[in-house]
Amino acid sequence: MEDLTSPKEEKADQEVGEVGRPWEEITVASSQDPESGLSEPLESEQGPERGPQPRSSPPRSPQSRTSTPLDDLTGPDASSAPSPPQEAPSPPSILTLARQELGTPWQSDKTPDVDPKAETPRSPHLEQSSDKGESTAPQMCQSEGNIFQQSQQTGHHLYGPEDVSENNSKQKELRFNIFQEEDSNSNYDLDCAEPGVSEVAPSLLEIAIQSAKAYLLKTSSKSGLNLYDHLSDMLTKVLDERPENAVDIIESISQDVKMAHFRKKLDTLQNENEMLPTYEIAEKQKALFLQGNLEGADQELEDEIAENSLPNLMESAFYFEQAGVGLGTDETYRIFLALKQLTDTHPIQRCRFWGKILGLEMNYLVAEVEFREGEDEEDIEDEDVPEERDDGDSGADEDDEDELPRAFYKTPQATPKEESRTGANKYVYFVCNEPGRPWVKLPSVTPAQIVTARKIKKFFTGRLDAPIVSYPPFPGNESNYLRAQIARISAGTHVSPLGFYQFGEEEGEEEEEVEGRRDSFEENPDFEGIQVIDLVESLSNWVHHVQHILSQGRCNWFNPIQKSEEEEEEEDEEKEEKGEEPDYIEQEVGPPLLTPISEDLEIQNIPPWTTRLSSNLIPQYAIAVLRSNLWPGAYAFSNGKKFENVYIGWGHKYSPDNYTPPALPPVCQEYPSGAEITEMDDPSVEEEQAFRAAQEAAALPAEEMEETEEDEDEEDD
Amino acid sequence: MDSESLLLSLELASGSGQGLSPDRRASLLTSLTLVKRDYRYSRVLFWGRILGLVADYYIAQGLSEDQLAPRKTLYRQGHERRRSKARVPGERGPVAARWTPDIPKTAVSRRVRSLGGLNCMEWSLLPPATEEMAVETSVVKGRFMGDPSHEYEHTELQKMKEGEKVFEEEVVVQIKEENRLVSVIDQIDKAVAVIPRGALFKTPFGPIHVNRTFEGLSLSEAKKLSSYFHFREPVELKNKTLLEKADLDPSLDFMDSLEHDIPKATLQGGYCYHPHFTGSWSIQMERGNALVVLRSLLWPGLTFFHAPRTKNYGYIYMGTGEKNIDLPFML
């Protein structure tokens, strides 16, 4: 047993170090008082330390002698335990250990009636022992060294009592008996009785201690730990950290200590991999912070500032924060940098942060930009794609014509999409998932996409190429759906204070000629601002500055018949079918641009907008906040002169009712149903008789005229 | 989110776009401290806000030492309503009812909602949610108004007996918004209140305490739904087989895990077409893996955040108080 403990003890020894010191004192103290009652040998060991002992009385000299045999006896006794070779220092150490372990409980148990009594007669005689025992002297020196060692370890050993306390209490009684015996015996029967008794005492004690310690040292078959080390680690931790109310959190400390064992295993590869994406994004975002330094020349800088297309995002973020909306300062600033990157790398006239659309896996940050004149990138490419698709369809139809009956279902003619810079395609949108990632330009929106988007409700995933699995089928992937929703949200929620924009004079006339509507406006240089309180109180002080999207999916109405006439010559069949439709479709007219939002429709008695003042505490500096109830997540603020719109949400329109996918269209007929192929019920007997009676009645007058008919009737029957 | 770490928590949860204006933040910090003192809670959580058409509700919850202790009814002394006469134009008066709870009898009560007025200073206690309330308010749809005394009208057909004749009659039921508020908060709590695994532990004697040694989830754990629990009394746990329970640590796994939510995160069969299908939750790593954010798709507006390897976690609800019943169509 000892060889198991000793190295560990030493280790613990070092760990305990200074911490052990207070304990040391205690044990020294404790070892003094009850010691006298304990056993002679111990006293003799401590002899030199005590030096001048007033209590020492010569007549009791033999006692000290008895003590030596005790020591001698314990020596071999202990060495008879499993591991003899290392025993040299150990026997005394076990004794001291025993004493100290038992010492504390004794003290705390307060057994004064025994101790004082025992003290007087038993007070040891160190002078004598030291005088007399030249032979014992070296032994003592040795043992003293051990005492020191042991007393340093006490911090360690003291844990014992908690668990061994049961043993202790038993042993205590036992020991008392022994000592009393000792007392009575010592006077006369020193030579024979005393050694005998003392032989019993240490062995009992030791066995108990050793078995307890052995039990504590038993290694767990699961974790490979043992309680002894664990307790010592725990106490080390407690003493190192000195937490408040240590007893209440001892379970947690125990858990902590155990966790510390496991943590070491989780190093190397795994962690490294886990952290990779973190660094990746940090690296990408680093580029955002560096971009300012790359363009060094002052001249360029001045030019840039002059023709700045970057919005002051932080300013509007500040106002939105007053309204309780926003993405947090840190994220906003990163978006700001990302916008700067966008404006630096593209020929952009105007740019603003449109908002954020939440997705299942990633989110979209959306930037609304307007390219400089004549620099509409890639528009032509986009337009080519749908045309090609149309060609493919018509080609397939022609091939099928010969073999199979041609389906007479005709796909309704696709409404052409609006030119860029007009209607729903007035702006170009860029999205990215996170600041620092590349901005991706969204394709322009087609009316079909808007029309279908109105009928479906799907979460965004965050991946632009994700398919939209829906009914009715959505023409395009997530990027198209995103673009359609952006168009719808913009049309519904982009508002500005009345008078901030006015219709452009020149352009307005042209538009009026064509459509009777104006779709362009310019900033009003004479805008004086509106009182914030007026903006809060009256919705008529806010106007839409994005065109309403008609149910056709376009902002400017497109007459489908007009086009069919143009294609008349090419496709005659088409014309015939068109004939069924009314010749003239009434033009859809949406509310004109810059219509006050007070005219917005209610959603089943729910007002479409909620206005409020940003702060009631300091109303004089508060701003007006507008919240859309139709598109939850859309906000606008105005401080009277400035305004901004933002959307942060899931990208879905609000509806108090649950979503119902449109019903499937009726099944197509295989063939035209007519009288000749309709199955009829067989006539019942009564019906037949009635029919015959009727026929006979009709035949009677005729019978007289022509006899031949009668013949025929008979033949039939 | 804990009222004491409100500012940090709001910053962490700000990715969903909803926050609090500076004056609301400041007043919350002050008033919640007072609430904690007055009602003798050991923890006060800022629960979130429910957006009303006219005004918003700010909700806070008080927790006693035992984090999941069964709720007890609060006693209240009368219904005296104080409605302030002076109103800011364009807004309704501050949320009215304020009851004085009988504190000595309620020292054990677990979560008691308080609701704040427009200025976040006056908190009133909400009655505990009951089954009847849930049934009664389930017929109400549409947005909250922002006035607890507002009454929704609901017409329903009731069978009337007069002698032997049984005929149906339209009865107008009036439902108080306060009841709806209570029941919606309760539903949200039961459905989507989230806590990371290990943040609470169950003591052998039953009470549930905050785990002091919780050091946060590791990065790999943080990405799994199974590392998050419903912050409520377990419902599903009892239905599990012994085999399923074998690996659970009774002191930590005493609540239902999110991975069993419906729709299930891992669908068997062909319906699930993308690999990161996470059922009724959206899990995202933000700020370069420094923050994990869970957003409920069933109750849009609920955001749970946790910074892995730290003790920072919490959830906040900022929404209209309506359940997303369209969820099956939207995935």
UniProtKB/TrEMBL annotation, chain A:
Biased composition (Low complexity): 34-45, 692-702
Region Disordered, residue ranges: 1-140, 149-168, 372-420, 564-586, 692-717
Database matches in InterPro entries: Radial_spoke
GO (cellular component) term, any one: axoneme
Superkingdom of origin: Eukaryota
CDD domains tied to this protein: DD_CrRSP4-like
Biased composition (Acidic residues): 373-403, 565-586, 703-717
Record's compositionally biased regions (Basic and acidic residues): 1-14, 110-134
Example of a GO biological process term: cilium movement involved in cell motility
PANTHER family per UniProt: RADIAL SPOKE HEAD PROTEIN 4 HOMOLOG A, RADIAL SPOKEHEAD-RELATED
Name of this protein: Radial spoke head component 4A
Source organism (scientific name): Canis lupus familiaris (Dog)
Lineage: Eukaryota, Metazoa, Chordata, Craniata, Vertebrata
